[in-house]
Amino acid sequence: MIAVLNVPMYDQDIPSAVAEIVANIRTGNARSANRCISATGAHGLVEAQKDPDFHQLLQQFHMNLPDGMPAVWVGRLKGAQQMRRCYGPDFFEALMKATAHEPVHHFFCGGKEGVAEELKIEVGRKFFNHQVTGVYCPPFRDMSNTEMEALGQQIQQSGAHIVWIGISTPKQERFAKRLSDYVQTDYIITVGAAFDFHTGRVKQAPKWMQNMGLEWFFRLVMEPKRLYKRYLEIVPKFIWLNIKEFL
Question: What is the pLDDT of residues 94-133, one digit of tens each?
């Protein structure tokens, strides 16, 4: 792990993370551990600087994957030369492929009505993974304790080893941590817009833009009304906070 803005970030690559998760499930080392993993980038790191409780929450996660290139560049400057971008949608794809023929069950939680069910069909078609044993579309409001308890029971009955949360940062990380109090599973993983990307509801940036750290610009062009305020704050603040830390 390498600290980026005092948040421990995973300093390897997607194949290494996938191999660790599959091995732990296969050997039973992660059984009922509720290990939380977040694919988080500049957005999550900036939010953590604004909110001490969220900062502490990310520090408690089992693994924070560098979802964007800026976090990777900072990590490499600090000496983590093996650090690679662990983009949420790519990590999701890699783990779905790696467990397609393993006795590893998945549960999808997130997206608008029908997205999780559609994603279940897509991972079977694209990745030949038919081990999705449950889906759930959470409401946009905060869920009551009774609702969380019912969701935990639904996941428990599905036999899921991995629960995927596809909402948005920082809501998804808080949701994952709260869910861990109501369920016994191996991993709870937050992957942001991966559900929408893999169902084709949202278009992804070209690879060259992703590699140059310009995915935020692509998404801003695609959804300016929804995202302009977010990126107007995040991009300069992330740069300034890291410069200040280095100084």
Answer: 999 999 999 999 999 987 788 888 899 999 999 999 999 9
Q: Which two tokens stand for residue 142?
A: 């905060």
Could you tell me the two tokens for 192? 């942001």
DSSP conformational letter for 112: S
Specify whether the CB–CB gap between 180 and 153 falls below 8 A: no
Residue appearing with tokens 């939010």: 47
Contacts of 190 by beta carbon, 8 Å cutoff, 6+ apart: 36, 37, 38, 39, 40, 88, 164, 165, 166, 167, 169, 172, 173, 175, 176
The number of residues making up the chain comes to 247
- Residue ranges with strand state E in 99-246: 106-110, 132-136, 162-166, 187-190
E-only strand ranges, the chain: 2-4, 7-9, 35-40, 63-66, 106-110, 132-136, 162-166, 187-190
How far apart, in whole angstroms, are the C-alpha atoms of residue 209 and residue 21?
29
CA 68 to the chain's CA centroid: 11
Tell whether pTM > 0.70. yes
**Low-confidence residues in the chain, pLDDT < 50:** none
**70: preceding bond cis by omega (within 30 degrees):** no
- Determine contact, residues 180/150, Cβ cutoff 8 Å: no
**In sequence order, what E strands does 87-244 have?**
106-110, 132-136, 162-166, 187-190
